[in-house]
């Protein structure tokens, strides 16, 4: 009795620790993760992609609920992340980083388009200095990109006549000749732009000196708007147009659950075909060789995916596993005590079955009736079935089963011998 109390205390503490761990696992497993994804205008590419991503994630991970939010663009999205009003956001790669933002994934490239009225003889980017130009909202990455490029050509807000308009108003203003040009960053093949270029006497202005621009703006990618992008019959543009592009990047707050981020990144690639079916431009999403080149610190959940670790479980339950380790000694101690008790119980249960076999053997030896032997055979196999179930459920040990097997074989042999004897003297015995 003197040792019973410490053992009992160890067992109680172990049960409490395991229960707490189980509760943590259950909470993490069934918790609904509600995230807000900041995009841009509801008529733009970011919003359309955000809705597609949210739908695919919901289809495969019901515990991740993503609400897509319309915003003013990249800079506004960064502010929302900092404020905690959004946990995910889409931004352009030229957007400034913030302390709490983390990169999650590179998405599709977006090309800078400069559309000008063909009647005005605008040939170079610097010719925009004397024209009226419409720019995207000031909170967008596109707005910031325009002024970064314009600075290279010695242009600033004081030397350009510009207005800030959302995309819908920009197209209307260009059609009404209220502006001479506009600047948009978008994926190639935008259907609204194709319609405008076919309707209006307009052309795409090249952005040249890309190598020089990259010296100050290393995030820029040199690209082209290929001939026929917006119309193949009467080619628009009639020849390749030099341009620059930036990558759209999915970012998150640094406190988003690592396991959730891992599954979001995994879904971008694992369920690519579903995403492309909803948003075709998702086909151009690039899987980086590592997360080192995303332009800002990478989220640990995304890093785990890019490095092809398999710690989805470890990433998600790292804290819980650390807690489990802290109670390991207590659990081992209690399990040892439980093993001793279980071995004793298993032996007692096996002994019970062996006693039943001894009784059956005795009844077999004393039986002279065919029907009684049939019943004894049935009892014998019922005992075997019970023993097999108990072995499967660890109610008896393998050693105990082996000690049971010999008397059972003896019993079945005795039964067959008795059946043979009865058959020889004219009784009908089962085969």
UniProtKB/TrEMBL annotation:
SUPFAM superfamilies according to UniProt: Periplasmic binding protein-like II
Gene3D superfamilies the UniProt entry points to: Periplasmic binding protein-like II
Superkingdom field: Bacteria
Record carries keyword Transmembrane helix: yes
Annotated coiled-coil segments of the chain: none
UniProt key word Transmembrane: yes
Keywords: Membrane, Receptor, Transmembrane, Transmembrane helix
Chain ranges passing through the membrane: 321-342
Matches recorded under CDD domains: PBP2_TAXI_TRAP
One Pfam family per UniProt: NMT1_3
Protein name as catalogued: TRAP transporter solute receptor (TAXI family)
Lineage of producing organism: Bacteria, Bacillati, Cyanobacteriota, Cyanophyceae, Oscillatoriophycideae
């Amino acid at each position: 009795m003197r040792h019973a109390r410490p053992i009992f205390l160890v067992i109680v503490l172990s049960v409490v620790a395991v229960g707490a761990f189980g509760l943590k696992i259950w909470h993490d497993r069934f918790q609904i993760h509600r995230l807000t994804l900041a995009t841009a205008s509801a008529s733009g590419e970011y919003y359309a992609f955000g809705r597609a991503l949210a739908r695919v994630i919901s289809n495969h991970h019901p515990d991740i609920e993503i609400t897509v939010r319309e915003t003013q663009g990249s800079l506004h999205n960064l502010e929302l992340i900092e404020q905690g009003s959004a946990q995910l956001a889409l931004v352009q790669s030229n957007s400034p980083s913030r302390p709490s933002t983390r990169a999650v994934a590179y998405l599709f490239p977006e090309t800078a388009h400069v559309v000008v009225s063909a009647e005005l003889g605008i040939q170079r980017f610097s010719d925009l200095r004397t024209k009226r130009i419409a720019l995207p909202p000031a909170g967008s990455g596109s707005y910031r990109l325009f002024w970064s490029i314009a600075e290279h050509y010695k242009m600033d807000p004081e030397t350009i006549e510009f207005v800030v308009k959302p995309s819908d108003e920009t197209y209307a203003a260009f059609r009404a000749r209220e502006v001479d040009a506009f600047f948009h960053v978008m994926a190639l093949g935008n259907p609204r732009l194709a319609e405008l270029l076919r309707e209006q006497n307009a052309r795409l202005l090249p952005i040249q000196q890309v190598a020089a621009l990259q010296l100050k703006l290393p995030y820029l990618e040199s690209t082209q708007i290929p001939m026929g992008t917006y119309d193949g019959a009467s080619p628009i543009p009639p020849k390749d147009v030099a341009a620059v592009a930036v990558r759209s990047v999915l970012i998150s707050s640094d406190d988003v659950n690592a396991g959730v981020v891992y599954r979001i990144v995994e879904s971008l690639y694992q369920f690519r075909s579903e995403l492309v079916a909803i948003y075709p431009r998702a086909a151009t999403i690039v899987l980086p060789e590592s997360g080192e080149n995303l332009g800002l610190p990478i989220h640990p959940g995304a890093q785990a995916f890019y490095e092809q670790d398999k710690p989805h479980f470890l990433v998600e339950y790292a804290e819980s596993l650390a807690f489990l380790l802290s109670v390991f000694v207590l659990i081992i101690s209690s399990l040892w005590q439980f093993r001793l008790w279980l071995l004793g119980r298993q032996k007692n249960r096996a002994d019970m079955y062996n006693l039943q076999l001894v009784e059956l053997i005795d009844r077999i030896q004393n039986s002279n009736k065919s029907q009684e032997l049939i019943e004894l055979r049935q009892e014998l196999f019922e005992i075997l079935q019970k023993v097999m179930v108990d072995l499967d459920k660890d109610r008896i040990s393998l050693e105990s089963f082996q000690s049971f097997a010999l008397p059972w074989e003896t019993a079945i042999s005795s039964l067959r011998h008795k059946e043979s004897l009865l058959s020889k003297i004219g009784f009908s015995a089962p085969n």
